[in-house]
Write a structure and sequence with these properties.
The protein is built from four helices and six strands, in the order ααβαβββαββ. By secondary structure, it is of the alpha+beta class. The protein has one domain. Strand 5 and strand 6 form a beta hairpin. The radius of gyration is 32 Å and the shape is rod-shaped.
Length: about 200
């Protein structure tokens, strides 16, 4: 067996042990940072998925609102306000952050078409529609001004300029559909769509 000289033993002061400890601490810190980064990425991905879910629900609400407008287009219902169904015959100035805007037709019975307490994705969906007219009543009434598109405009080949000829045909009114979707992660999405019927 080989003997280690006494002089060599005294020169060892534990530097390697200190280097190994520093390396272990650095590895531990980088491991913790990696775990936190993965958790953050999962939260971001979950929030994006929740946001996309609310956008899809808003698209469905637009279709429901259009269906309601089409179902009531020939009965004269659209000439007056129907707040219980989320419809206003004249252009509104809504405060979309106020709860009162969305509680007009909120119900748990499902009797009103403008509120869905659960759309299958855990979202609460509300919508309001306002016709782009100055006042309630018939679009052809005296003093009425409605944003409208003439039905024959695209087929006539004419112009929308102020000095152009008037198009023949019945005008189609513009409707603004405003949608609020509240998601299960306390996310709120506000959307608007304009349709003409």
């Amino acid at each position: 067996m080989r003997q280690v000289p006494a002089g060599r033993r005294h020169s060892q002061r534990g530097y390697m042990l200190m280097l190994v400890l520093v390396a272990l601490v650095a590895m531990m810190v980088s491991g913790i940072a990696l775990v936190r980064s993965i958790d953050t990425n999962q939260l971001v991905a979950g929030n994006l998925a929740s946001r996309n879910s609310t956008l899809h629900s808003a698209d469905l609400a637009v279709q429901e609102a259009v269906n309601w407008i089409q179902a009531n287009a020939t009965s004269g219902v659209l000439n007056g306000d129907v707040p219980a169904s989320g419809y206003y015959a004249e252009a509104q100035t809504f405060n979309f952050t106020a709860a009162g805007t969305w509680t007009q037709c909120t119900t748990t019975s499902g009797a009103t078409p403008c509120y869905n307490s659960n759309d299958g994705a855990g979202n609460q969906v509300s919508w309001v529609v306002d016709r782009m007219c100055a006042i309630a009543g018939s679009p052809n009434a005296a003093g009425q001004f409605c944003s409208a598109l003439n039905a024959g405009a695209s087929s006539s080949g004419g112009s929308y300029s102020s000095d152009a000829i008037n198009f023949a045909g019945a005008p189609k009114n513009f409707y603004r559909i405003s949608i609020q979707v509240v998601g299960p992660r306390n996310t709120t999405t506000l959307s608007q769509a304009f349709v003409t019927l």
